[in-house]
Amino acid sequence: MSNVLNADAKGVFVIAVTPFTESGELDLASTDRMVDFYLESRATGLTILGILGEATKLTAEESRTFVKRVLARVAGRVPVIVGASAAGFAPMRELSTSVMDLGASGVMVAPAPTLRTDDQIVAYFDMVNTTLGADCPWVLQDHPVSTGVQMSTSVVLRVLKNSPACVMLKHEDSPGLAKLSALRAASDKGDLKRVSILTGNGGGLFLPEELTRGADGAMTGFAYPEMMVDVCHAHASGDIEKAHDIFDAYLPLARYEQQSNIGLAVRKYLMAQRGVIASAALRKPGPKLSEADIADIDRLVRRQTRRLQEIQ
Q1: CATH number, domain at 170?
Q2: Local confidence band at 15 (pLDDT 50, 70, 90 cut-offs)
Q3: Angle between helical axes of 263-273 and 291-311 (0-180°, round to 10)
Q4: Is the C or the N end of the chain the one with fewer CB within 10 Å?
């Protein structure tokens, strides 16, 4: 394994949760176990301080502490990407410089939610290039559900053409299969440099189809990251039907985890149940699962376990 981030990246970059204690403090012991869990699940990379990493609830000092702990535990075995979207370019530069100095492999940037026109989006990422510099590999995050910014295929192509240090697209348009096909066709024809395309739609809810359309893997979160790893491995080996069978076994739980209001609480509950993190706590404000939610989840886990045994 290597911690280098480049346009050849493939596999599964897991979006990590941020573990907290019941009182809301960073749980660094659980952070170590979580990193071990992701690597034992054969993740090819990690992404931290993402939207579902509760990054906006951390102070700057807590963010540095968490990044430092993850990087120390990973110890260069896989690339680690850090979310660096910020309200302004000065804090973006400060955070990016800080995490790269700590040993991160690259940063991820989404368009600012104030952007409205195609030209504004392109100009924004021109400034991102200036802010990050030529030596900082970065990931373009296309997630209109969270940013409110719709980037058309032509705009993404313009941004990538203007961005030599952008080595990866995190494709999260929903479902965006036609966009994915068009972007991969552009690089296949030589109209665009090849970049890694990792998909993030709702815990991988379209992963088999996205792999068929030319995605290189997944960058998203799910309490069972081995699902994404096994689907990618089966697909890469040419066993498309097996990839779909594995995916189908996990789909009901993956779907349940993607609820807009309680999804992260579901993921943390499952990770606590699996012994990965000590507490399922979200930092306030955050939802709590009801007894009915937990009954749903436990039923889905039992059904998933049975189905996986049947397809082995």
Answers
A1: 3.20.20.70
A2: very high
A3: 60
A4: C
pLDDT band at 1 (very low <50, low <70, confident <90, very high): low
- Residue 170 in domain: yes
Cα separations in angstroms, 1 against 16, 20, 69, 146, 196: 19, 29, 19, 32, 17
Could you report the per-residue pLDDT of 45-104, keeping only the tens digit for each? 999 998 788 988 999 899 999 999 999 999 999 999 999 998 899 999 999 999 999 999
pLDDT at 234: 98
Total residue length of the chain: 312
Note whether residue 214 is domain-resident.
yes
Residue 277 φ/ψ, nearest 5 degrees: -125, 150
What are the angstrom distances between the C-alpha of 237 and each of 22, 141, 210, 264? 43, 28, 16, 32
- Token pair of 124, please? 């924004």
The sign one gets for the Cα dihedral 229, 136, 16, 213 is negative
Residue 128, domain member (yes or no): yes
263: in domain:
no
The pTM score is: 0.96
Residue with tokens 């979310």: 83
- Give 220-275 pLDDT, tens digit per residue: 999 999 999 999 999 999 999 999 999 999 999 999 999 988 999 999 999 999 99
Strand, coil or helix: 51? helix
Provide the residue range defining the domain that includes 62: 11-239
Instruction: State the amino acid at position 221 in one-letter form.
Output: G
Task: Measure the CA–CA gap between 230 and 243, rounded to whole angstroms.
Answer: 7
